[in-house]
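ok trying again, last paste got cut off:
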Amino acid sequence: MNQGPVIALSGGVGGAKLALGLSRLDLGEGLLVVANVGDDFEHLGLTICPDLDTVTYTLAGLSDQAKGWGRADEGWCFMAALKQLGGESWFNLGDGDLALHTLRTVALAEGKNLTAVTRAITRKLGITAQIVPMSDDPVRTMVQTADGPLAFQHYFVRDRCEPVVTGFVFDGVAAARPQADFMAALSDPDLQAIVITPSNPFVSIDPILELPGVRDAMATAPAPVVAVSPIVAGLAIKGPADKMMAELGMPSTALAVAQHYGGLLDGFVLDHGDGDQADAVAALGMRPLVTKTVMESLQDRVGLAREVLALARELGG
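nice, full thing came through this time. structure:
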């Protein structure tokens, strides 16, 4: 069996679930989870990296599975005091979560890059897999709306995804350099698979794909690219992907996600509820796999991860 690296491109909650499943397949440091940083922002003087932190907390066994974000058993004394003092309180920061943000902000101010800071944090938390930012350079997602542009967290958290979306701009992406370990893994001759997790295609995965050189490197990589649909039976399992698709004039279907990624994919994974779209996916030149993609338990996460890797190995010969 090929023991080369596996790359997983991830946003937050949905991507982290599949990343956790992959981390249970004895890949060790061979699993490289590349997290979107387009959602990152500076708030109350702190550098906040929501997707990186969701993946980190999930793989460390610290995530709040009920809320889908933040740490489990979190305290909220800081937020209560902030509100009492009239501070900006639309973005919740738990007491334990603040430790990570503060540590990262201090380390970045000392000149360390985001990769080094993330590596130090993940090792302290006992995570064996490599979790890296898509870039050490700042990229910020701006959501274009009918009422003007919004920084992603303002759209997503403050305004609760209510504005009508007309497009997306990734500020800084043209000048950003893809993370070095990510690019090295894409050209590793032993690479097993590139997995696009079931994260939002527009604001979680596209920022990674828009980094200079990434699409070309994925297209020429020695391993197949397999994506898992974040849309099941017309709805997003988590987040506003289905709403965005409707507002952009796209059908909210798994097939539309496959079409969005286009010729980049070798395989595409659909839920049983979308099995009737498998032939149309195959017509796009991708190998469809119809299975259970809704990850309700750890067993579901591991099972889906195993099936995705099996598909990649078949495609890779």
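cool. The chain is about 40% helix and 20% strand. Residues 15 and 199 are 5 Å apart (CA to CA).
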